[in-house]
Amino acid sequence: MSSSRSPQAGESGVWPAAVRALRHRNFRFYFGGQAISVLGSWIQQVALSWLIYRLTGSVALLGVTTFAALLPILIVGPLAGAWIDRRDKRRLLILVQGLLALQAASLAALTALDAIGPALIIAMSVALGLLNAFDTPLRQSQIGVFVDDRADLPNALALNAMLFNSGRFIGPPLAGLLLGLTSEALCFAINALSFSALALGVSRIRMPASPRAQGSIGEVFREGLRYVWTTYTARMQILILAVVNITASSYAVLLPVFAKDVFGGDARVLGWLWGAAGAGAFLGTIFLATRQRLRSLVKVVVGGAGVSALALVAFSYNTRMPVALVAMAAVGFGISVCNVGVNMLLQSAAPDHLRGRVVSFFSSTRFGLDAIGGLLAGLLAAQIGVQAAMAVEGVVLIVFFVWTLGIVQRLRAGVAAPTQR
């Protein structure tokens, strides 16, 4: 990708290095719409968790619901990446936003009419997961097209993650406030409206149609799988991503139980705990946005796994809210630099024609293993207690972190020579 691909690449003058991707007009339109959409999604996620626990008091159901929402990404995601690489991604992205808005509006109506229950919540979560299996690789793979200089791609990915994590910081406390004043139904309705912002932003983007992959879906899928499996750095980065998300990311399933049973609070306490994790994740993306050398990201990714592991253990048996907020911020920071750092490394090394499929493997691992981890955490907490379950997750991740220290140098060498297998 060359900076000469579009005459608009530098039309906005000089931007600070930390936000240099915003000099691209198309990315600015995407960025604005994404900011509103992400905030709505976080408001819905917190409201849904609170609704489930308020109606049922079941920590296991929290895990099952998270599993139902994320499992389709693990199963369908890789094939979805092959399918979207054969389509007009920009038009498809707009269509998916409309379907996501319909899902959120349906959830709002069912909740407002008191017609919602565990079975319907799980069904709606499955529908959301299926849509996200297409939405996530669509959004991520298009970022490389929205910037006109490939050197700005890592910064664009970091800024995109910054939006996600700022929504994670602002959305949960806002959701807690809304839940205290109104109801879950209003939170779901707000999310339904938020998808129109991204659809509008993408509709304003001016760009030529992306080249489409040729061949059957099976052939296109196997080409992407071959690249990820035979490239050592990509394979190991996916492994790190998997272990971090099956352990550390499952904290989200357990937070409603900590908020109500350990800290004796309500939805506002849940919002503060989730918001603290979001604040840490936001700081992580700010840190990544200032990184300009890809090789340095390898140590950052491995270090993120270690930070989140230690913070999980520190949080597990603590009963003091200030310490809990700091620990949650550290968990969020560690997970963020690991997930976003891996995404930056994978997309920067991937050939343009394979990016949609590489992103689909990233997103299916990131969210699919999060689903499995959430299910396991919920079931484990039901058996041994929520605090012990959190401690077990942290100890497992500490053991894995120690193992990864032995492959750091080989990973750094692979980033320096990305064609090495």
Notes on the structure:
The protein is mostly helical and 421 residues long. It has a single domain, classed as MFS general substrate transporter like domains (Growth Hormone, Chain: A, Up-down Bundle). The chain contains 15 helices and no strands. It has helices at residues 25-56, 59-84, 89-112, 118-146, 153-181, 184-203, 217-230, 232-247, 251-262, 267-289, 295-316, 321-349, 355-384, 386-404, 408-416. The longest helix is centred in the N-terminal third of the chain and has 32 residues, at 25-56. The protein starts with 24 loop residues before the first helix and ends in a 5-residue tail after the last helix.
The number of distinct structural domains comes to 1
Spatial shape = globular
* Unreliable residue runs: 1-12
- Structural class by secondary-structure content: mainly alpha
Q: Which sequence of SSEs, written as H and E, runs from N to C?
A: HHHHHHHHHHHHHHH
CATH architecture: Up-down Bundle
Rg measurement, Å: 20 Å
Fraction of residues in H or I helices: over 70%
| Separation of the first and last Cα atoms | 23 Å
- Name given to the CATH homologous superfamily: MFS general substrate transporter like domains
| Percent of residues in beta strands | under 5%
CATH topology: Growth Hormone, Chain: A
